[in-house]
Amino acid sequence: MNMYDKFSVISVLGCAFILGTSLAIPHAAKAEINRTDVYELKRPIILTKENQGEQIHVPAGQFVSVHLAENPTTGYRWTMIDNNAGMPVLAEHFYSSQTTDGPVGKPGIHTFQFKATTPGIVKLQFKQWREWEGDSSVLDTFYVWLHIDK
Question: Transmembrane stretches, by residue range (predicted)?
Fold first, then answer.
């Protein structure tokens, strides 16, 4: 066997190896895709003031996000009233619409994130108020009824 023949055999074997491993990748990927312990990511249901008083059906395990307009520099803040065990608060955050330019104190969005855990009916309710002034300072309210299905 001359040098050219050896090079040809090595080239063919190398190509066969590369081709063989590349054909195996889709099977490994398919096995990864068909895993039963991987859960589908669901987008949260987003509720705003436009949903005031609505009754909304939500599957258990679903994430819900409430977005309410707020300007905290006025002292008025959104607060949840009577937290329900069926909808624990996962996170709460204020997102300012303010850019680096302009005056301080621009409004933004106060968000509350929840996860529907226990089947049943839950009333999510909030009030916008100055906490130090008490209930007489309530400026606005918001509520929705969530029907958490199994």
Answer: none
